[in-house]
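INFO  loader      accepted 1 record
INFO  loader      residues=380
INFO  predictor   begin
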Amino acid sequence: MSSAISTSGSSKKLVYIDTIRIILTVLVILHHTVITYGGSGGWYWVQKTSCFAALVPMTMFVSINQSFFMGFFFLLAAYFTESSYLKKGAFKFITDRLVRLGIPLVFYSFVLSPIVSYLVYYFAKGHHITFLQYLSGYDSWIDFGVMWFVAALLVFTMMYVFVQKFIKTGSKKAIPAPGTFQILAFAVVTGVISFMVRIVFPVGWVLEPVGFQLGHFTQYISLFIIGILAARNNWLDQLTAQTGRRLKIAIVVFLFFFPVFFLIRAKLDMPVSWYSGGFHWQSLLYAVWEQCIGLSIITVFLVKARKSWNQTSALRTQLSRSNFVVYIFHPLVIVGLTLMIRNWQIDPAFKFIIMAPIIVIASYILGALLLRIPGIKKIL
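INFO  predictor   done
INFO  writer      dumping tokens
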């Protein structure tokens, strides 16, 4: 996304990371568009399809995405954190992060989020008042929305600096890259811890006003730490093709759990919320499955990208440069374009099929245009 996770200044062998970041950003856009039209999850406004044939793949898409894409962002951010810290020193590093992460965070909360919320209030809810009238009663000024990621990254980064300054981090002895067994074992442990966290903080529970879903933070914290270790020990170059092949097979196996989840729910006539948290074996099963498929996807992505996506081009460079701006502004594009066709009398599932590519392209066009503004270009 931002230069906080940029590969600039790093080895040319890591050009493929930019491609991964583009794919992840597109997945974020599609994720929120799917939620708008049928997938599970919260968004500024929704127009859900009732077509079961559409709801099943939408639910699968959201579940698989959630298993890896934001954790992957934290891992990549951490991978370039230590080199930046060592290059700049603590003070300059912290100042740089406060500018590049803090300013967009404040902008989103105080400017962009009220605008997006007003569009929904005016067009979707039919309250035809002026923007100034809306602001006079607005009381959600601390609303990070999709920028919860940036807020969390800022917290993780500050914790990293604290550890570097005041706590010895142990031996400098190199740690070999994990293989298939170690990755899946780590996934199981992460899943078990996630299950325990979700007994108190089930998926969907949000820490207001910062927007942290603590039920997912076990993965986010662990992958941020893994990112630091991966950079120190050069793991990205050491992940083997054999590990990638084995985990591809594992992903296929894990995908067959979807009908198992549906069958368990149907046979036991249980609330679907039992998969999201609480002291239920179904929650444990889902949490372990989520981490196993998520970490498998991340590893396969890294192995595949290193082998096949390590070439650059003018278009890829431009898309990569726009990623963070796209991430910040994509809610405005999604809400704006989906509100424009809200009265179109076709099933929302068809709206998704039509609008998804338009929204992705429009988000990147807007991002490229905004980067032409000198002030934005300097910060982002």
